[in-house]
Amino acid sequence: MEKTIKQWLSRMKQQLGNKVRSMEQNGAQETVMLVEKTELPDVCYFLWHEKKGRLFTMVGNDERDIHGFFALYYVFSFDSFRHFITVKTLIDPLDPTFPSVAVQLPAANWYEREVKDLLGLRPQGHPDPRPLILHGDWPEDLHPLRKDFPLDRHAPRVQSREAFMPYDSEDVTEIPVGPIHAGIIEPGHFRFGAVGDTILHLDARLFFTHRGLEKASEGMPLAKALFLAERVCGVCALSHSVAFAQAVERIGEVTIPPRAAYLRTLFLELERLYNHIGDVGNVCAGFGFAVGISQGARLKEIMQQLNEHVAGHRYLRGVVRLGGVRIDITEREKEDIVRTLAYVKKEFQELVDLLFSHDIAMNRMATTGVLRLEHANDLEVVGVAARASGRSVDIRRDQPYAAYDQVPFHVPVYEAGDVLARVRIRVDEVFESIAMIEQLLHSLPSGDTFTSLPPLPPYRSAMGWCESPRGETVHWLMVGPDQTIYRYRIRSATYSNWPAVPLAVKGNIVPDFPLINKSFELCYACCDR
Amino acid sequence: MFDLIRKIWRTKTVTKTELFTEAPERFRGKPIFTSNECTGCQACTTSCPAGAITLQQNDDTITVSLSYTTCIFCGICAEVCETNIIEITNEYRLATKNKNELTVSQQATLAKLLTARKEV
Ligand code: SF4
Ligand code: SF4
């Protein structure tokens, strides 16, 4: 395998010729290609289109203190080689522009708009000039992720530059919904253009919960930043903390002890379980199927009480430590997990049988909110939404971490791309996760639960990733001097999937929007950060 | 239809059948001070991610205080305390009418500290 990767990389270097200035390894799994910014679109398109790399994440970084330039990193994942290629380019502060990659590679759309808002690097030729992370009333020339922007600076509000799709025809009704909603959910503004009750177009305005976490983390000691990572999102708390810890461990080049890897995997699957079970119940709220909602909520509660019992926290916070885990489980707790799961499995099966044999429920779910495979591929959709549209990506299998290479598991994939397919994926994954947990408990190795970290060299970067219940989450981290954070970029699964929602709702009726939205079950907090 | 009714009948009212008594043993609730043997080592204040613990040194006393208004119940302080005087309980009921009750303090006298140091 080693040899084939080398051959593959050198062949790629030949094909790209003098477009690549230099190529170097960053850890065992990542190769960094330095290119001139003018070559950026060509090289990225080549890696994406010809070589079939997935755009994994994209990071902009203010590295003027280090070498006088801004830097952009486009990371592509090559799952079959279990390798990443990062295309890096340096940008002169005197000319803070770069040719947009998003023109050819739609998945880069949000990333580039984000870099423009937060760092003031302008993607030239980008199809959408609107602000993304910072809303239109934020001054256009203030860029909070630049190192010279002080943390406590108060930005004045200006005349809003927000713009939505204009409609010429009188037949199109504009329906604005949110950011404050009827239920207790997070804020997002949805503006439908509807003809009758059919949705023609949807503008989704997010980033109301942008808290500047990435800025806040800069200069923070790594041990404390772990608590910040845990609080990026409420329901994927563990996935985020694992991803962060992995990034740190990769920079320090430490391998966590086997028992710690197994325990992380175990808790990650418990996180998936309570989420998926709750989500299947929640989808029922999309068509008022009260029995399903209540049963889903009841089973989710049982799972969360199990979490509380074994990990001390209903949302599994405080499980991870840098270099391993903080929580160990005893024989008695193993039995408690097995007993609870056996009960939940039986009850969940009953819930699923009720749901899938209910004609009205099936009617509402089938063929509703179809996300087509081409769209899913173009936007690099991840997680449940991807697998329901026939796009087989699961980072647990594709780039294994923790103990996922030790337990066999099946990754369900459906083709239909509708609400029903997304529910079916969750149902299948619930049973997969239960089977995995049984295996993990059976083969749990003994030994230490953590190892200590060496001091990390400054200005090294690495990534940590994790398949959260919503899909793959990537944390890109560069450490600074004295074990602090220099740059921390959190790309959650929802960040990749939100752009797909407006495509899936087109042509559906307005009352089906809540159902479609619930079937994606995207959260706002980790997308907005 | 009958399956639905049967299911509802069998589940009954959850809040009546599955009563909540107290939080599990491992649940991380209020941290408390169990004695006044604080050495003023500051391990807790520096590692508390929320900055909930403060240390005050007067002439011959040291006062360590912990505020539940900022604590995130992570349990790090109990892990790092060298004299093990911080303990995480499973008490989750925090509501109070008096804000001052949300801060707990422990005083240690410096004389005691000196003897404690000598023994070590
Ligand atoms: S439990 Fe955590 S947040 Fe609370 S005082 Fe202790 S260290 Fe600080
Ligand atoms: S409470 Fe414990 S950790 Fe904190 S200063 Fe006193 S001895 Fe040190």
Structure report:
The complex is a heterodimer of chains A (529) and B (120). Chain A has helices spanning 2-16, 40-50, 64-67, 109-119, 213-217, 222-230, 237-252, 258-283, 290-311, 331-356, 359-365, 373-378, 383-388, 395-398, 419-442, 493-497, 501-505, 513-520, 525-528; strands spanning 20-25, 30-35, 54-63, 69-78, 83-91, 97-99, 122-124, 172-177, 189-195, 198-205, 320-321, 324-325, 461-468, 471-479, 485-491. Chain A is of the alpha+beta class. Chain A starts with a helix and ends with a helix. In chain A, α8 packs antiparallel against α15. In chain A, the strands form five sheets. Chain A has a five-stranded mixed sheet. Chain A has a three-stranded antiparallel sheet with strand order 8-9-10. In chain A, a hairpin with a 5-residue loop joins β14 (471-479) and β15. The mean pLDDT of chain A is 89. Chain A folds into three domains: 3-124, Beta Polymerase, domain 2; 172-205, no CATH class; 218-519, Cytochrome-c3 Hydrogenase, chain B (Orthogonal Bundle), CATH 1.10.645. Chain B is an alpha+beta fold and 120 residues long. Chain B has a domain at 26-93 and 100-110: Alpha-Beta Plaits (2-Layer Sandwich). In chain B, 28% of the residues lie in helices and 21% in strands. Chain B contains five helices and five strands, in the order ααβαββαββα. In chain B, strands 2-3-5 form a three-stranded antiparallel sheet. A two-stranded antiparallel ribbon of chain B has the order 1-4. In chain B, β2 (53-57) and β3 (61-67) form a beta hairpin. Chain B is elongated and about 75 Å long. The termini of chain B are far apart. The chains are: A alpha+beta (529), B alpha+beta (120). Chains A and B meet through α6, α9 and α10 of A and α1 of B. Bound molecules: iron/sulfur cluster (2 copies). One iron/sulfur cluster is lined by residues 31, 48-50, 52-53, 66, 71-77 of chain B. One iron/sulfur cluster is lined by residues 38-44, 55, 64, 80-83, 85-86 of chain B.
